[in-house]
Fold:
Amino acid sequence: MLSLLAICLLSLLIALKSGSVAVGWQDLWQIISGGENEWRELVLKLRLPRAMAALVTGAMLALAGSLMQVLLRNPLADPYIMGVSGGAAFAALGAMLLGVAATFIPVAAFIGALSSILLVFAVSRGSGPWSSTRMLLSGVVLAAGWGALISLILALGPDNSLRGMLFWLMGDLSNASVPLAVWIAFPILLLLLMLRSRSLNILALGEVTAAALGENTKQLGWFIYLLASLLTAMAVSIAGSIGFVGLIIPHAMRLLISSDHRLLLPASALTGGSFLILADTLARTVAAPLQLPVGVITALTGVPLFLYLLHRARVQT
Structure:
C-alpha cells in the first residue's frame, strides 16, 4: 500500500512536470515549495487541477469496477455494461446539442446517469430473490438503447459541435474540474465501502454462502449497485466516458495484491488514480501541442491487458 501511495505521488509529479512545455525538476520543486517561478501559473492553474481531476476520476472508476465484479461475481465485469455511462453520455450530448452553458454539461451527465440507474432498478426488480443475471441483462439492453440514441444525436448534431461531442464520448480531461460535492462525497462513499468490506468478502463466496452467514444478499446487492453507479456517475460527469479503468485495475489488483476488499478497495483507488494520471499525461504529450482524448490512451492500453487477463483466466480454468 505504501508503494502504491508512492507511485500515486510520483504520477502527480510527472503530470505536473510533463506537457507541451517541459518543466525541470528544480523548477517544479521551487514551485511546490512556494517560490516564484515563470512556470508557476502553468503548473498550479492548469496542470494541477487536471491531474487532480484524473486522480479522483480514476479512483472512482476503479472502485466502481471492484464493486461490479463482486456483485456479478465476474472478474471481468465493468460498470459501463450497466448502461450508466450511456445515460450520462446521452444527457450530456443532448445538453451540448441544445447549446446550454458548458458548466451545466456535468450536471446533465450526472442526471442522465442517475436516470439510467433508476431505469435499471425499475426494469430488473422482481418479486423473487435478487438476481445478478436479471440486472446484468437489464443494463446491457439499456446500454444498447442509449447507444442508439447517442448515434441519433451525433447524426443530427451540427458539424461545429461534433468534435467536442466526440472528445467527450472518448473521455476528455482538458476542461475537467472536480466540484466540491464530489470531493465531499467520494471519501464518504469510500468509508462506507470499507465498513462493509467484510460483507463484500462474504458475498464474493456466493449468494448461498452469504445468506447462510447471515447477510441480506438482496439488500447488499442494491447497496453495492447503487454505490457503484453513483461513483460511475460522478466520474462520467467530470471526464466523460473513459473505458477500461474499472475493468483492468480491480482485476489486476486482485491478482497482484489480494481479493480481500479491506486491501482491494484502497489499492484499486490508488492504482486507478495513478493509471489515469499517467494516461492523461501521455495524452497531453505524445502528440503535443495537440491533445488526445484520454479515453483513447486507456483503450489502447486496456485492450491488450484485457486480452492477456482473458487468456490467463482461460488457461487457469
